[in-house]
């Protein structure tokens, strides 16, 4: 995961935003003001910027509403290309196809390609409870999980690990066992009405953090379990309605030390209940395969060149890769195709931005951000000239805010950029939450102002990383508005006289 930055006390946020809003005045002038230093811009110039941006944002929204190709593009991506696991032929086909789509819209575009150690393909996966009952159940291996050598049978054991020292009681007892890492998830604690899509899958922390089981401790325990050479590690998918979740494949795109797999919550809970009464056994077969050699992984980069400050960039993007159980529609075909549509709309309007607007379709977001890291590495010398980044990565629901991601020093200018968008797209105020779990984090970690779209849930809890992440879940009106919003935000930033301030590079995370 990514580092969490310190939160600003709420009363400081209120004071900060009050000061910003008091600096705004009613709309007066018809034109955007000429570039000038912050202290030199008058109230009239700020009003003129706001009015010009509202006019532009309305035109962008109208262009998308009238001529959008987003749904057509998304249907092709999800149906003809399908799921796009990083390093797979389908992912590379998607990169090649999006390159042609950008170019077909008259936008300069290219691929930037890196390699991962091994591609991974899901094969035959079967499982059965053999004792004390007989029941065939579904099973799906973690991405890049080690395969089995044919069918394997073993006794099942559930671990009770509340702190690292709890593992001592299991040493020497796990070899050849099928290990359940913990008791089933308590589904009754799911928030029935999460505020946003992110919270639907990663609930915000509550109460006092658990001191003995931070991320480092959990990873250490996983290594200890694997070192005991169990036959299989099982994890609860933690979703309702027999849905799976998926993860894995990082950090090195290489086989795990032992096979690892998800069961549905229902089957995991069944197995757990059986173990409360007596012994249980299973047999399973995971025939997933790896490439022998490294494979390419590409990001698609397109640009509309700036006229006054061509060396400065405004970046919008989303990740094109997906997990492989569904079609990668909402995670994150919607964000990727919204980015493509934003580019089409701006190009169709024929406007020339002051700053270069860059559109990026990332790969590898689902396995640790290799695509964003590739762009940051390739463009290290240019990062100081990236004005801002905005990522769309939580599905089809309406964008109703932008998360400031603790970039308080940018709040005055961001509020000025954001006010016209509020008027046109009926948005809530800027969010003071920190999310920090998508492709923008690679930019944040280099001091670049980078933000995250906050969206309505719109099925996201169910589809996230599951087999039901399919095209039929898309809400066309809401995702089309999201594309218009991306384009409008990029335009507003490109026309802002001042650049958003960068921040000091944070120290490397300790966990």
Core attributes:
511 residues, alpha/beta, Aminopeptidase, Glucose Oxidase, domain 1, eight-stranded mixed β-sheet, seven-stranded mixed β-sheet, 13 helices, 17 strands, disordered N terminus
What does this structure look like?
- The protein is built from 13 helices and 17 strands.
- The radius of gyration is 24 Å and the shape is elongated.
- Helix 1 crosses helix 10 and helix 8 packs across helix 13 (476-495).
- The protein has two domains: 69-116 and 294-495, Zn peptidases (Aminopeptidase, 3-Layer(aba) Sandwich), CATH 3.40.630; 120-290, Glucose Oxidase, domain 1.
- It has 511 residues and is an alpha/beta fold.
- A hairpin with a 3-residue loop joins strand 3 and strand 4 (135-137).
- The strands form three sheets. It has an eight-stranded mixed β-sheet with strand order 4-3-10-6-7-8-9-5, covered by helices on one side. Strands 1-12-14-13-15-17-16 form a seven-stranded mixed β-sheet, sandwiched between helices.
